[in-house]
Automatic annotation (TrEMBL):
It is found in: Cell membrane. This is Sugar ABC transporter permease. Keywords: Cell membrane, Membrane, Transmembrane, Transmembrane helix, Transport. InterPro entries: ABC_transporter_permease, MetI-like, MetI-like_sf. The keyword Transport applies. Residues 71-285 form the ABC transmembrane type-1 domain. The chain crosses the membrane at residues 12-31, 76-96, 108-129, 161-182, 264-284. It comes from Paenibacillus lignilyticus. It is a multi-pass membrane protein.
């Protein structure tokens, strides 16, 4: 009897604890995802009650229209910028993990941009890159490098590099903190043993530090790839995709399709395609990681 009552209480407790998270999951993930998939099969304009069924026509339009997929070339700037950012972040993490005077101050200064609001950062760098009174062009003038002065956000050759640099600057501190945490988890005994055996700093890094933090590096690269695919805030706020679409990313193109051209059906299909691309990329990376673990 007591066993039966205990089992019922256990079921009630489990159901109670699961009710809220499952409800939130359905309301904010599963239901919107299902609606996104449904709308991607319609020609909804975003405001009328009618949602004309078009089937897979929106997906055919995406793969036929070269202008839609060509914007992924702009996302590559953020991807390569992310790789450079990870290298610099790892360097700072190694340096600031040592007994260096004032290292906490340096950590805070490098991490500070990450906690700043993206909109504030965008407006701040709008003044830095201003072609007339910008501080960057002013610095180049002061250094006698007038030949390098340009409209950083108005030149199609420099706009994506300029935006990717801002992204690097903002997320550098975040990756640095992640790497510092990984470095601090490595036992000091390993380095002491390596020092006794005559290993120098370079050998200690490649034979002790690097293998120990490799999984963290892979995680950072996973975030870098997905972040590069989903870039939105900086180009949307600072350039609106300009000049002439030179800084458009897939997400800004999707938003423009929905709100500027009132084609929510096509925009929903673009959202589904981006979701599938992210899933494929993550799956490939996870398969690579698992293969390394099995090996």
């Amino acid at each position: 009897m007591y066993s039966s009552i205990y089992k019922k209480q256990k079921i009630i407790v489990l159901f109670t604890f699961l009710l809220l998270p499952v409800t939130l999951l359905v309301l904010f993930s599963l239901y919107p995802g299902a609606m996104l998939l449904y709308l991607s099969l319609t020609s909804w304009d975003g405001y009328s009650a009618a949602k004309g069924w078009v089937g897979l026509d929106n997906y055919r339009e995406i793969f036929r229209n070269s202008e839609i997929f060509s914007v992924f070339s702009h996302n590559l700037y953020y991807f390569f910028g992310g790789i450079i950012q990870n290298i610099i972040a790892l360097y700072f993490a190694v340096v600031l993990n040592k007994k260096l005077r004032g290292r906490n101050i340096y950590r805070v200064l490098i991490f500070l941009p990450y906690i700043m609001n993206s909109v504030a950062i965008a407006y701040m760098f709008s003044y830095v890159y201003d072609s007339q009174d910008g501080s960057l062009n002013g610095l180049l003038t002061l250094l006698g490098l007038d030949s390098l002065i340009t409209s950083w956000l108005g030149n199609k050759h420099t706009v994506n590099i300029s935006l990717a640099f801002i992204s690097m600057w903002k997320y550098l501190g975040f990756n640095m903190v992640i790497y510092i945490g990984a470095l601090q988890s490595i036992p000091d005994d390993l380095y002491e043993a390596a020092l006794i055996d005559g290993a120098n700093e370079r050998q200690s890094f490649f034979y002790i530090t690097w293998p120990s933090i490799l999984k963290i590096v892979e995680l950072s690269m996973l975030l870098t790839v997905t972040g590069a695919l989903e870039v939105f805030d900086l180009p949307f706020i600072m350039t609106k995709g300009g000049p002439a679409g030179a800084s458009d990313t897939f997400v800004t193109k999707t938003v423009d399709t929905a709100f500027h051209y009132s084609n929510y059906g096509l925009a929903s299909a673009m959202g589904v395609v981006l979701l599938l691309i992210v899933i494929v990329v993550i799956t490939i990376q996870r398969k690579f990681i698992l293969r390394e673990e099995k090996g």
